[in-house]
Design goal:
The protein is an alpha/beta fold. The protein has two domains: 21-145 and 268-290, Response regulator (Rossmann fold, 3-Layer(aba) Sandwich), CATH 3.40.50.2300; 150-263, Rossmann fold, CATH 3.40.50. Helix content is 44%, strand content 17%. The chain is built from twelve helices and ten strands. The protein has a five-stranded parallel β-sheet with strand order 2-1-3-4-5, with helices on both faces. Strands 7-6-8-9-10 form a five-stranded parallel β-sheet, with helices on both faces. α4 (100-109) links the parallel β3 and β4 (115-120). α2 crosses α12 and α3 (80-89) crosses α4. The longest helix has 20 residues, at 3-22. The protein is elongated and about 65 Å long. The protein starts with a helix and ends in a 10-residue tail after the last helix.
């Protein structure tokens, strides 16, 4: 090997560990990560555990180079603005949100702190991002494409109950994603000759009334639209459906574990694990507006 080639090779080899080191999390800086959830701590734990594991896999160690500030709304989305304000006071470097309501609350509260969505429903329709490829602003992350899969869940009910003609739909008109999804299923329902029985639930105390209406109307099945209030009460809904032998569908597998008939949608645990990759890139200097959703 000629001398010039050797020097070039040696110089490149010496640079490799420096380049690799530049891509590793800083051991000196302690980055605060805000974690906001519209759900309860118990319902969020599996998802947040996946987030923490995803960050550990990328070299981030809690207590050494990252720390977390958690806030939970316990299914009451009206509490989210004050909770995100508390998170921001801790001077967090990134805010990780779960779904649409907490993403909207965070986006309204700050235009400078990066926000990573783990499982937003339809971030474009909600006005959180400009487009999937280049979201712009300070919001990025993942979408569970809840509205795109809404018709499929209705189709699954129809396949399960071929004579299905009337479905009770639990939804929250105060929740943006729930409202968007309610609009999304109107046309598919008409195509399948299914009458949708609207059962609005905005607070926990309205569940009993909604269940009474469903049994009184002799609905054939229950379709639960996305929304924190339904996630936090999925066991209650599943038990009601089982008691009255009503086929039921939701978008989370946890609903089936609670006793519901079926679910159709992405694995939210995996979405939170993958959200760690967005946090990692942002902490290393990436602009959230340039990271495709």
């Amino acid at each position: 090997m000629r001398r010039r080639e050797f020097i070039t090779l040696a110089g490149g080899a010496a640079a490799w560990p420096l380049a690799a080191e530049a891509q590793q999390p800083s051991a000196k800086a302690l980055h605060q990560i805000g974690v906001l959830s519209p759900f309860s701590r118990a319902d969020s734990e599996r998802w947040h555990q996946a987030l923490r594991q995803g960050l550990r896999d990328l070299g981030w160690v809690e207590g050494e180079n990252i720390s977390f500030e958690y806030r939970y709304a316990d299914g009451v989305s009206e509490h989210l603005p004050e909770l995100v304000a508390e998170v921001i006071k801790h001077q967090v470097a990134v805010i990780v949100v779960a779904v649409t309501p907490d993403a909207l609350a965070a986006a309204k509260a700050t235009k400078t702190i990066p926000i990573v969505m783990a499982a937003a429903g339809d971030p474009i329709a909600a006005g959180l991002i400009q487009n999937l490829a280049r979201p712009g602003g300070n919001v990025t992350g993942l979408s569970q494409m809840a509205t795109d899969l809404a018709a499929k869940r209705l189709e699954l009910l129809k396949e399960t109950v071929p004579n299905l003609s009337r479905v009770a739909v639990l939804w929250n008109p105060r929740d943006d994603l729930s409202t968007i999804t309610w609009r999304e299923i109107q046309l598919p329902a008409r195509r399948m000759n299914i009458e949708l029985h609207s059962l609005e639930v905005t607070v926990v105390s309205e569940f009993d009334s909604a269940f009474t209406k469903a049994t009184g109307a002799k609905d054939h099945a229950i379709y639960v639209l996305p929304g924190p209030i339904f996630v936090d009460n999925e066991r209650r809904i599943a038990e009601f459906a089982a008691k009255y032998r009503l086929p039921s569908v939701f978008h989370l597998p946890e609903f089936v574990h609670a006793g519901g008939l079926m679910s159709y949608g992405p694995d939210r645990v995996d979405l939170f694990r993958r959200a760690a990759g967005f946090v990692d890139k942002i902490l290393k200097g990436a602009n959230p507006g340039d990271l495709p959703v």
